[in-house]
Amino acid sequence: MDYKSNQKPNIDKRRDINNDFNASLVTAKIIIFYLFIGFTWILTSDYFVNLFFDDIEVINQIQSIKGASYVVITALIFYIIIHKSIKMYEVTINDLKKAYMGLDLSHQKTLELDDKLFKLAYYDLLTDLPNKVLLEKTVSKYIEDHPDDGMIGFIYFDIDEFSHINEVKGHSIGDLLLKKIAELLSSKINAPHMLARMGGDEFVLALFGLNQLETYIPQVESYINLIRTTFVLDDDDFFVTYSVGVALYPDNGKDYITLLRHADAAQSVAKAKGKDQIVIFDDEMVTMIKQQTELLNYLRHAITNNEFSLHYQPIINLKNDQTIGVEALIRWQHPVKGFIPPLEFISISEKNGYIKEISEWVFKEVAHQYEAWNIEGKAFRISINISPIMLMYDRFIPYMNEWIQTYHLDSSQITLEITESAIIEDIQKSVHVLKQLKKLGFIIALDDFGTGYSSLTYLQKLPIDIIKIDRTFISNIKPNTEEFHVLRYMIELAHHLNLIVVAEGIETVEQANMVKKYDVDLAQGYFFCRPMPQQRIIEYLKETDSN
Which residues make Cβ contacts (< 8 Å) with residue 519, sequence separation at least 6? Predict the structure, then answer.
């Protein structure tokens, strides 16, 4: 039994009784005072009238005057009492009105604050679209209400090459594009369907209560084609395309998290296939997800089980055919799966946070093997690939400074290779980080040059020393083709900017002769030497030097 709740009515009842008693007591005092004054006035006045007057007519006149005076005085007394009471009530009423107005204003502010908090919790500030929290609640509620019927089309999409728009036009223009897309698409979407922004340039369109699959995909295509158009941004035209992943409830998932994961997997396939397309989740992607999950589980133990190793590929000076350095390349030999190529596990490790541990392992291993490269006192350069995640890591610069101090490394003999994708997301921060690395003495190389449409724009902005022409560009070049003339222009431009040019992926004597002819400085590829463990590379170098 709740003692406090039972006692509260009794307390309130006693308080009311006390208030009534006090009011009655005050009223009785006023009446007694009035009676006392009245009787005192009558008796005293009669006594003095009889004492001083004998004439009956005079006494009657005085009595009349006395009675009239009594009425007037009584009226004045009552006036004063009533006036004060009314004044008190007016003051009380005014105070109550002010208090009510204050409470009403406070209530309005509370409602406004609740609205703001609700908007902050469930809506995107830039586009005013529902955010991922509200999307999850809505989808989960629909699934709860329709466990055995109903369908959801879960469409996950983002803007192809959106980072380039941010880079070329600035983030404010990128935000403007996001708002325009949100306005255009949401104007065509009615309840119960929902368009939500997940963050960045990623959106989800949830279509509820679908009836026929035959009309579903054309419906998705119609929505995407609505925003697959040219947008005018800061007086420039941008034709915008999208990579789209589609998952269905209940076929591809029976909860929000599964639908999101499967739609995201389908979108990743769309990007891998060249972007600007719609991919529907299927059973093959389930296999892919299982394989990726299995690979992640293997990654967790790869370092502690000593499954990683470093191979090195020589970098050749084309002026004298001498090896001037090597590029460190990570290799993974799993005891069950065997050799796992870097292309399979590097991207997964970046998405799931393991790349930091892997990168630190590479740096430590390079440091441990550093002294062995001092062959007959020759200065030898080591190239290390840097992940975009590490480049944006806040502790990267302190870590690199500590690394060279701990292992007594000559930073001028170490080249850090970055790719265009590593700098495109935040060019300003990338430039700042690279300048800090330059101050520490590192050589900076831009890897995979020629694969990004805006690579040339970075040459003047970035504090780099070397450009490495991508192997796919080299392999497609033939004399007197358009690609051939582009290659010549790239080399001439780089030399004009005092940059060293490295050609990657040289596999034939024709390719080697071609890059030599047009003054490429350095080269690497299977034509010269395959990546091998350090000891075998050292033996190879000794053999080539002796010859």
Answer: 491, 495, 501
Could you give the CA distance from residue 494 to residue 467 in angstroms, rounded to a whole number? 8
Same domain, yes or no, for 82 and 157? Answer: no
**pLDDT 10s digits, 218-259:** 889 999 999 999 998 888 888 899 999 999 998 888 999 999
Number of neighbouring beta carbons within 10 Å of residue 254: 11
CA–CA distance, 33 with 389 (Å, rounded to integer): 92
**Within this chain, do residues 41 and 85 fall inside the same structural domain, yes or no?**
yes
Domain with 317, as residue range(s), is 298-546
Indicate the Cα dihedral angle 495, 328, 429, 447, nearest 10°. Answer: 40
Nearest residue to 407 via CA among 375, 367, 443: 367
Return the pLDDT at 273: 80
Q: With 60 as the cut, is the pLDDT of residue 340 above it? A: yes
3-state secondary structure of 170: coil
CATH of residue 418? 3.20.20.450
CB 356 within 8 A of CB 519: no
Please report which confidence band the pLDDT of residue 1 belongs to, taking 50, 70 and 90 as the band edges: very low
Q: Which residues of 37-55 are buried (b: 16+ CB within 10 A; e: fewer)?
A: eeeeeeeebeeeeeeeeee
Is 71 part of any domain? yes
Straight-line distance from the first to the last Cα atom of the chain, in angstroms, rounded to the nearest whole number: 100
Pairing of strands 322-334, 308-317: antiparallel
**How far is the C-alpha of 39 from the C-alpha of 12, rounded, in Å?**
41
Beta-ladder partners of 523: 316, 503
Is residue 204 within 8 Å of residue 198, measured between CB atoms?
A: yes
Same-domain status, 146 and 259? yes
Burial 83-108 (b: 16+ CB within 10 A, else e): eeeeeeeeeeeeeeeeeeeeeeeeee
Question: SS3 for 131-150, per residue?
Answer: CHHHHHHHHHHHHHHCCCCC
Condensed to tens digits (0 to 9), the pLDDT of residues 141-173 reads 999 998 878 889 999 999 988 877 877 778 888
Q: Which of 206, 201, 198, 151 is nearest to 176 (CA)?
A: 201
> How many distinct structural domains can be found in the chain?
3
Beta carbons within 8 Å of 300's beta carbon, 6+ residues apart: 354
| Mean pLDDT, rounded, for 22-36 | 71
Confirm if 153 and 252 have CB atoms less than 8 A apart.
no
- What pLDDT is attached to residue 235? 80
